Amino acid sequence: MSIRVHNVSRRFGATTALEPLSLDIAAGEMVGLLGPSGSGKTTLLRIIAGLETPDSGTIHFGDRDVTRVHVRKRRVGFVFQHYALFHHMSVFENVAFGLRARPAAERPDNDEIKRRVRHLLERVKLDSMAERLPAQLSGGQQQRVALARALAVEPEVLLLDEPFGALDTRVRVELRRWLRHLHEEFGFTSVFVTHDQEEALELSDRVVVMSDGRIEQVEAPATLYRSPANRFVFSFLGETNRFEGEFHHGRLVNGEAWISVDARPGAADEVLMRPHELVVTTEPDEMAHLPARVDAISPVGSDVRLELSAEWMRHPWQVSLAHHEHERLGLERGSHCWLRPTRLHRFERS
Ligand SMILES: Nc1ncnc2c1ncn2[C@@H]1O[C@H](COP(=O)(O)OP(=O)(O)OP(=O)(O)O)[C@@H](O)[C@H]1O
């Protein structure tokens, strides 16, 4: 089921939660709404769900205009951050709930309900816990029940609001995998809200980056990361090192530090770099003169993270190095070094 959001806007008193915005989601696509707190993600999700009415604009599911259609008639499944399971009902009954609540004419018979619920519980590997109460499950297991419950009614659209927000990192990663597999097996269209960049980039076919009630960019994860449309998207997607200065003879200069870059009309007096876009050296370079001091060294997974400071930096910089590179350089806390950017990002002045 495709979803078309056309010119939708929403205000709450003096607050503009959504500027008029449009978004097309293809059938079977998984789309992540990513943005800082207050950017309008939940409002947009709730409007798609039918839990909120837009001030203007229309929502279509396929060819059907659902703008004025009640939430119960939209055939959407929901998963929210707080499990919202029925605590007095077993896992089995929680998953069966949506089927039992259907009007008699549409309700499957008991055997069919059993079959479907069993199948879903197997899919989320909870078949051995069907008779337990939610309180007897871990947070991650409860959220898997919530997923199974949302899918029991065979929704064409699944909407998830920070579904894994309350769980610890390892469980989150595992649940993302569940969701991705279920999405592929059942073929529904999914829209989920997150403020976690990694989650959005890992799960989505396309990411919708929002700020201040607007859509900043809609793009597949790899393209989004490589080609952010503007400074906001760049900064929001990951750690950012910023060099600001004044242009002098082909250099951007800040005190004793400089980087070779052309002055460009309209460009801000700054360049940005990701932590992996800097090389640490033991002497200055002809393209850049960036002396720094190592303040902290932390091995993180496959990389070593350095935190660096210098008088010309407004905030400490982060640099990531391969372990062998770090060993070769022999850096310690307090060591002095030089930095050479391998890539510079520049955006229009905002
Ligand atoms: N029911 C409401 N009444 C008044 N203001 C609201 C209401 N719902 C949302 N807002 C405001 O609309 C703006 C967008 O809120 P929304 O919840 O959509 O953002 P969000 O991106 O989902 O944020 P978060 O990540 O914190 O949940 C915010 O400024 C919020 O305070």
UniProtKB/TrEMBL annotation:
<keyword id="KW-0547">Nucleotide-binding</keyword>
<keyword id="KW-0067">ATP-binding</keyword>
<dbReference type="InterPro" id="IPR005666">
    <property type="entry name" value="Sulph_transpt1"/>
</dbReference>
<dbReference type="InterPro" id="IPR027417">
    <property type="entry name" value="P-loop_NTPase"/>
</dbReference>
<dbReference type="InterPro" id="IPR008995">
    <property type="entry name" value="Mo/tungstate-bd_C_term_dom"/>
</dbReference>
<dbReference type="InterPro" id="IPR050093">
    <property type="entry name" value="ABC_SmlMolc_Importer"/>
</dbReference>
<keyword id="KW-0813">Transport</keyword>
<dbReference type="Pfam" id="PF12857">
    <property type="entry name" value="TOBE_3"/>
</dbReference>
<protein>
    <submittedName>
        <fullName>Sulfate/molybdate ABC transporter ATP-binding protein</fullName>
    </submittedName>
</protein>
<dbReference type="InterPro" id="IPR003439">
    <property type="entry name" value="ABC_transporter-like_ATP-bd"/>
</dbReference>
<keyword id="KW-1278">Translocase</keyword>
<keyword id="KW-1003">Cell membrane</keyword>
<dbReference type="InterPro" id="IPR017871">
    <property type="entry name" value="ABC_transporter-like_CS"/>
</dbReference>
<feature type="domain" description="ABC transporter">
    <location>
        <begin position="3"/>
        <end position="237"/>
    </location>
</feature>
<dbReference type="Pfam" id="PF00005">
    <property type="entry name" value="ABC_tran"/>
</dbReference>
<dbReference type="InterPro" id="IPR003593">
    <property type="entry name" value="AAA+_ATPase"/>
</dbReference>
<dbReference type="GO" id="GO:0005524">
    <property type="term" value="F:ATP binding"/>
</dbReference>
<keyword id="KW-0764">Sulfate transport</keyword>
<dbReference type="InterPro" id="IPR024765">
    <property type="entry name" value="TOBE-like"/>
</dbReference>
<keyword id="KW-0472">Membrane</keyword>
